Each structure stands twice: as structure tokens, then as C-alpha cells.
Amino acid sequence: MYRSAGYIEHIPEIFICAGWKKGGFDSCEGDSGGPMVIQRPDKRWLLAGVISWGIGCAEPNQPGVYTRISEFREWINQILQF
Question: Taking CA atoms, which of 39, 49, 62, 67 is between 20 and 30 Å from 29?
Fold first, then answer.
């Protein structure tokens, strides 16, 4: 979607871009730190990301950018063992 809007910025693998091409649904200012969840095939919910940043709110071709939780799985597990 970013490329569709004319951006050439590289988004590292540590992030997930998510949104609707037509816009209308998105995280917005003040939502940082909130969850991005997905429902697995077994109907359980999974925390996939944490709202990080974006350009505008719910604009066409401008997704919200989320920190990818799986990139931090090992660290999270270490912290939870304490």
C-alpha cells in the first residue's frame, strides 16, 4: 500500500503494515501501544503487533505500522520466566 501512495521508504521486517486500500479503518493518534490481534484457524486470538506509527488516520493506501511481536518472542519469554 505504501508504494501505491508513492512512498519508497523501506519498512524493516520488525514492522507489519496493515490497513485498507480504500481507507476508513485504522489506528490513529493516541492509539500507540494498542494491540493488533488476529484470529487463528482454531478460533484463538493472537497478539500479532503493537501499534507503533502511521501517516494520518484511515487514509487510502496509508497503512498503520505495527511492531511485529514475533520478533520479540524470545525476549518476552525470558522476561516472563522471572
Answer: 39
